[in-house]
Amino acid sequence: MDWQRLVEARIAAAMQAGEFEDLAGTGQPLRLPDGETTEATLWAAVHILRNAGVAPDWIELDGELRGELEAARRGLRRQAGSEAAVRRLRSRLAASTGWSTGST
């Protein structure tokens, strides 16, 4: 007997034994965390992936792109800080010597 038939047989036996009667929330919609879809198939897929610590490819790609974007922003901030430091040094040199630094 394959696993699917085994599961179906156990569910049928539990139903006949009345094990699914009077369960809390019977007849009520599922209470899903905010932002989750109520579409059963998609909800189940997201639930399984989350429990396995896996994300869909597009979510993983989004995380990678956000990381690369933040790294690029840090690089630009460092570069801007370095350029500002050079301008300050040129300004101090010009003030102390009276020379033109040709600053840009």
Description:
The protein is mainly α and 104 residues long. It has a domain at 57-97. The chain is 64% helix and 0% strand. The N and C termini lie far apart (80 Å).
Please give the share of residues in helix: 55-70%
* SSE order, one letter for each helix or strand: HHH
Major sheet summary line: none
Rg, please?
Answer: 31 Å
Secondary-structure map:
Blueprint: H1 3-16, H2 40-51, H3 57-97
Give a summary of the structure in a few sentences.
The protein has 104 residues and is mainly alpha-helical.
Keywords for this entry:
104 residues, 3 helices, 64% helix, rod-shaped, single chain, mainly alpha
